Amino acid sequence: METQISFFKNFLLLIILVASCTKNKDQTQPNPVGFEWPPLYQGTTLTQVTNNSNNSWDFHCRWSKDGKKVCFANYNNTAHELTLRIWSESDNNIEIVVEGMWGDFSPSWSPDDSKIAFDARINFDGTNLNHIATGNSSGSENWPSWSPDETKIVYQLFNGDIARIVMKDLETNEVFLLTENDD
Prior knowledge:
Elements: H1 2-20, E1 56-63, E2 69-76, E3 81-88, E4 93-98, E5 108-109, E6 115-117, E7 120-123, E8 130-131, E9 140-146, E10 152-159, E11 162-169, E12 175-177
Antiparallel strand pairs: 1-2, 2-3, 3-4, 5-6, 6-7, 7-8, 9-10, 10-11, 11-12
């Protein structure tokens, strides 16, 4: 019975979400997909900050805590290269921080905005690259998140069909398995 109620609640939420994305009948806010903008964006002008060719795309963007920078991943399908980039509000400039990244697409700013974690940790200016990974994993490390004091990072370790949550102490380099999902 609880499963049915949970399913019904999720189904209702989906219906509400779909209903909120109906076509914009008065066409006051033109958009390429033909859906009405959420209330947050109605009546505002959206500004494109990246300009890519058809062979590359930007994704997994994250605001810095101070709201003045955005870190994001870019994949160039022609070069088969993944880069980590930062857009700065102050000069509307995009800077490549890391070229030839090796797999994680989910950057995370440190609480003081001085570092970015992905499957490595790096200063926002591109210096001091340190791998988060333990080096003895055949899986991928994804979705890092900083502790408030910046001494630890937790992340998802995905190995085939098993996903675990791992914590790494950045001062000692010790790695702790927080969850075990063997089923």
